[in-house]
Amino acid sequence: MERLLVLVRHGQSDWNLKNLFTGWKDPDLTEQGVREATSAGRRLKALGLTFDIAFTSVLTRAQHTNSLILGEIGQPDLPTIRDQALNERDYGDLSGLNKDDARARWGEEQVHIWRRSYDIAPPGGESLKDTAARVLPYYITEILPRVLRGERVLVAAHGNSLRALVMVLDRLTPATIPSMELATGVPLVYRLKADSTVESKEVLEG
Ligand SMILES: O=C(O)[C@@H](CO)OP(=O)(O)O
């Protein structure tokens, strides 16, 4: 039985382009982001992949990415579940600040710790650990059971909510997760074993 799980980070957003901390703020995709999402759909289509269900966050950039992919693969009406559990990490007080301005103010190292450490949260926001504490229970109760019973599942979400999931799938540790980056609009095609560990992983780069 095939147990297919495809994860994709949304295409470039307006605030990615402007280099702003985004978190739960809700900018849409840029034109480049639209192209990235469309191209992600084309790459999935080239592999002949279709889905039984899609999951996304309550944020526009992820939903828009999901719709563009579904349009490309010829499944525009695929049932899609939207849930806040899949939202980007909440960047708290950093939301809306320019990332270079933040480096100038707090230093390169502190900003890197806020962005990429496992358990140090930005002021008023979520650490990756906090993000994982909502993403993983949702994955385990809502997404994984479907994959294990053979439904082909697409998840269109965010850099840090997906890092929380990839950390578990790829067995990364708090020490190795900081160097893991997810590119926008690059589907990760996982096939799982019956015990929910990873059988194979394919990265569909452009
Ligand atoms: O601003 C954000 O919400 C995220 C993703 O764009 O940024 P970072 O890569 O710094 O975690």
Task: Give a topology summary.
Elements lengths: L3 E6 L4 H4 L13 H16 L6 E4 L3 H13 L7 E3 L16 H8 L1 H9 L11 H21 L4 E5 L1 H11 L18 E5 L5 E6 L3
Parallel strand pairs: 1-4, 2-3, 2-4
Antiparallel strand pairs: 1-5, 5-6
The structure holds 2-phosphoglyceric acid.
The site of 2-phosphoglyceric acid has 9 residues, from α7.
Task: Summarize it.
With 206 residues, this protein is α/β, with parallel strands linked by helices.
Number of domains: 1
Order of helices and strands: EHHEHEHHHEHEE
Strand tally: 6
**CATH homologous superfamily assignment:** Phosphoglycerate mutase-like
Rounded average pLDDT: 98
Catalytic activity: (2R)-2-phosphoglycerate = (2R)-3-phosphoglycerate
Organism: Chelatococcus asaccharovorans
EC number: 5.4.2.11
Pathway: Carbohydrate degradation; glycolysis; pyruvate from D-glyceraldehyde 3-phosphate: step 3/5
Descriptive report:
The protein has 206 residues and is α/β, with parallel strands linked by helices. It has one domain (10-190, 199-203): Rossmann fold, CATH 3.40.50. Helices cover 40% and strands 14% of the residues. It has 7 helices and 6 strands, in the order E-H-H-E-H-E-H-H-H-E-H-E-E. The chain has helices at 14-17, 31-46, 60-72, 99-106, 108-116, 128-148, 159-169, and strands spanning 4-9, 53-56, 80-82, 153-157, 188-192, 198-203. The chain has a 6-stranded mixed β-sheet. Helix 6 (128-148) packs across helix 7. It is globular, with a radius of gyration of 16 Å. It starts with a strand and ends with a strand. Bound molecules: 2-phosphoglyceric acid. 2-phosphoglyceric acid binds next to helix 7.
